[in-house]
Task: inverse folding
């Protein structure tokens, strides 16, 4: 088996491609699900269940985005570069801001869908889920690179 070729993020390109495709598919799934009209019959679900669904969807989205797009910290597959260190340090916050904008646009577009309405509480659940997901995804990449973990992203893909 030939060794994987690392990309600019320090991860093998094949792995990145899988996570990036999965991220796009997940984003389209979220948009599709929130574009479907809601039936007129009442549901017996408590209001917190809706927030749990929003949190979970965006937590998964955050994990996928972190695995697909966040750069590794300096010293983990990349040479330290002063110009890029600031970008690396703030990349998670930038990704969170972009996911918050995506979630906000998704909530706003529901204004035009029968049976749906935008909700600030749903947006908060979305952003909280994305934040937790980004943290989990970042932890996964960092922990897979530690010596003794038995996994080397550079070659074991």
Result:
């Amino acid at each position: 088996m030939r060794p994987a070729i690392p990309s600019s993020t320090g991860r093998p390109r094949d792995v990145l491609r899988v996570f990036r495709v999965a991220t796009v598919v997940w984003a389209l799934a979220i948009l599709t699900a929130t574009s479907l009209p809601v039936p007129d019959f009442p549901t017996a679900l408590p209001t917190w269940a809706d927030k749990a669904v929003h949190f979970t969807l965006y937590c998964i989205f955050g994990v996928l985005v972190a695995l697909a797009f966040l750069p590794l910290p300096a010293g983990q597959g990349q040479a330290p570069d002063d110009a890029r260190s600031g970008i690396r340090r703030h990349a998670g916050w930038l990704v969170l801001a972009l996911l918050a904008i995506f979630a906000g646009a998704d909530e706003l577009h529901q204004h035009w869908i029968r049976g749906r309405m935008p909700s600030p509480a749903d947006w908060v659940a979305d952003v909280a889920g994305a934040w937790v997901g980004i943290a989990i995804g970042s932890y996964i990449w960092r922990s897979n690179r530690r010596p003794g973990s038995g996994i080397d992203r550079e070659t074991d893909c």
Remarks:
- Residues 13-144 form one domain.
- Residues 1-5, 148-157 have pLDDT under 50 and may be disordered.
- The chain has one domain: 13-144.
